[in-house]
Structure formats: C-alpha cells, structure tokens
C-alpha cells in the first residue's frame, strides 16, 4: 500500500506548484520530499538561511505568505504556534490577502483546535478550503517521509490533501471535522511527554542502582515497560545513535515546543473539564526546564534535567 501511494504521488506530480510556508526542523525536510516527488515548490520563511537551503535544492523562494498564495493553489504551512498561524494566514502579508478561490490550505502546525476552526471560517469567506493536518514522528520521520498525518476538515477534500501528504508521510488518517486532527495530535503529545519523563526517571533510577544503561534499555525494550521513548528515542546519552541524546540534545523536538503543546492540552482539558493529573505535571516540568536553560534542547533532555536536579 505504501509503495502504491508513492507511485500515485509521482504520477500526480509535475503539475501545478505547491506552496510551503515554514521551513524549520520539520518543514524543511517535508518540503524537500515534495521536491523529490516532482512537485514544484514555492516557499517562504522568516529566516533567509532556511529559504536559501531549500532554494539550493530547487524550490522557488518568495518574500511573503501572500506571494505564495498568489502563485500556488495548494499551500502547506508548518509553523511553531497559534499566533504564528494567525499571522501567516490573516496578517497584513498573509495567505488570505491574495488567496485564490478553490485553494486548498493544509496546516501541519500543532495549534489550538479553536484556532484551526477560526482559520477555516476565514478561509471559507475567501472561497478557500482549510484543513488541519498536524504530524507525529519527529525530524527523522520527516526526513524519511515516514510521518503520520492526522487530518481534520471537510471529507470531500480529504483525497486532495492525501495526495500531497502521502509524499511526506507513511500514514495519513482522517479524523473528522476541522480541529479533530489537532485534538488527536495534542493527545498524542501529552502521552509522549508523560512517557519520556517516565523513561528518563526509570533510566536514571536504574543507573543509580548500578545497572548499565544499555543493558537496562535492552531489558525494558523486551519487557512490558517498552515504549517509543525507550526503544526509538532513548533519552540517555550513549544508549542509541542518531538521536538527540547522542548529540548533546541538539535538533529534534524542542523543549519549548513540548511545553507549548502541553499548554494546549492543559487548556483543552480545562475547557472540557477533563482531569489530566499526569499531563498537568508534565506541563509543569517542561515549563521549569524552559526557565533552567533547556528551552532550545530536545525534549528528551528531561533526563539531563533530572540528573542535575538530584545534585541540588
């Protein structure tokens, strides 16, 4: 099935360009995968260096989101937060200033579901279609086109969105109306944060009890404690290669972004009167980390944070 999706992706390319706005750690490899699949890409980002890197691989770079909207009728956005999305879509040089009727707008940012619904209403007034399609999988999956997309929006436009998303991911899942993709992503990231903290605590305890960290990880990963944070993204330096813990926690998914996503979970839990005691505690831990110098490190640096805390 995945092979057939890639064939469809190639057959659908070499046609009209795709706009891409937001060329950060996730957006850049996603846009590159569109280029690899033959799609002409028209891109912009607030950081010129990010634009130059993509331009060197064949993309056309323009000055603003409005310029992208003028040249493309399929646009993907990958931005850090709700305020960024609001600015890129509705700001003075935003997409909706020059969007063409019938344009498909796919937002892969992780934001408040309410903001996704607001953007959908604003797009509809311009004759465009907005869908939320946040991702899971991290930078590695983005580079290898193995992301999971959680899609919310009108079902009639799902196949049109899937054509593009399949070029960047292994799984594209329709969740329901606009905002439900964000809901699924927020739930996933809350569990991810809780699992990472639990893995970091467990590994730290085992090390203090005299266990070799690689041995402990091996045991966990063949036992009932196994999880993504232990077997794919282990937070302990030296246990795995090719993960942020092996590179002083550089790259990956930043602590600031995890704190932001947990804040979204906290807000939606409050609004729906849903108890999330572990989610709330995880939010508190990552907020403290941001104030202690971990803001720009990968969220798996919670292991290092715990090690430093024990010395105080």
Nutshell version of this structure?
With 312 residues, the protein is α/β, with parallel strands linked by helices. The chain is built from 15 helices and nine strands.
Describe this structure in words.
By secondary structure, the chain is of the alpha/beta class. The chain has 2 domains: 1-177, NAD(P)-binding Rossmann-like Domain (Rossmann fold), CATH 3.40.50; 184-307, N-(1-d-carboxylethyl)-l-norvaline Dehydrogenase, domain 2 (Orthogonal Bundle). 50% of the residues lie in helices and 12% in strands. It has helices spanning 2-12, 27-36, 48-55, 65-71, 82-90, 95-98, 113-125, 138-143, 158-165, 180-208, 213-220, 228-231, 255-271, 277-291, 302-309, and strands spanning 18-21, 41-44, 60-61, 74-77, 104-107, 129-132, 135-136, 147-152, 169-176. Strands 3-2-1-4-5-6 form a 6-stranded parallel β-sheet, sandwiched between helices. The protein has a 3-stranded mixed β-sheet with strand order 7-8-9. Helix 13 packs antiparallel against helix 14. The mean pLDDT is 94.
- Low-confidence parts: none
The rounded distance between the terminal residues' Cα atoms is 53 Å
The share of residues in helices is 40-55%
Query: What is the averaged pLDDT score?
Result: 94
Strand tally is 9
Number of helices: 15
Largest sheet, strands/sense/barrel: 6 strands, parallel
- Tell the overall outline: globular
Per CATH, what is the topology of the largest domain? Rossmann fold
- CATH homology superfamily of the largest domain: NAD(P)-binding Rossmann-like Domain
Keywords: Branched-chain amino acid catabolism, Mitochondrion, NAD, Oxidoreductase, Transit peptide
Main location: mitochondrion
Domain 6-phosphogluconate dehydrogenase NADP-binding: 18-176
Pathway: Amino-acid degradation; L-valine degradation
């Amino acid at each position: 099935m995945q092979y057939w999706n890639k064939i469809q992706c190639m057959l659908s390319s070499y046609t009209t360009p795709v706009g891409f706005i937001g060329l950060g750690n996730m957006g850049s490899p996603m846009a590159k995968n569109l280029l690899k699949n033959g799609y002409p890409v028209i891109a912009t980002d607030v950081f010129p260096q990010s634009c130059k890197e993509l331009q060197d691989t064949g993309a056309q770079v323009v000055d603003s989101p409005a310029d992208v909207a003028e040249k493309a009728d399929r646009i993907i956005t990958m931005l850090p937060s709700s305020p960024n999305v609001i600015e890129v879509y509705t700001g003075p040089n935003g997409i909706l200033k020059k969007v063409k009727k019938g344009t498909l707008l796919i937002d892969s940012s992780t934001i408040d579901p309410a903001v996704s619904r607001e953007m959908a209403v604003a797009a509809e007034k311009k004759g465009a279609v907005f869908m939320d399609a946040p991702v899971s999988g991290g930078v590695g999956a983005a580079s290898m086109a193995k992301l999971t997309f959680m899609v919310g929006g009108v079902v009639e436009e799902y196949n049109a969105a899937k054509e593009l998303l399949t070029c960047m991911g292994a799984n594209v899942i329709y969740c329901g109306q606009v905002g439900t993709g964000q809901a699924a992503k927020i739930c996933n990231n809350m569990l991810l944060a809780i699992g990472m903290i639990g893995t970091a605590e467990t590994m730290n305890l085992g090390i203090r009890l005299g266990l070799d960290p690689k041995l402990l990880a091996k045991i966990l990963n063949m036992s009932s404690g196994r999880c993504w944070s232990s077997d794919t993204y282990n937070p302990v330096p030296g246990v795995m290669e090719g993960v942020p813990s092996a590179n002083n926690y550089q790259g990956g998914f930043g602590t600031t972004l995890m704190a932001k996503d947990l804040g979204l979970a906290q807000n939606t839990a409050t609004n729906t009167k849903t108890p999330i005691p572990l989610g709330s505690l995880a939010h508190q831990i990552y907020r403290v980390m941001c104030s202690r110098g971990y803001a720009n490190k990968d969220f798996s640096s919670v292991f290092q944070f715990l090690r430093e805390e024990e010395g105080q």
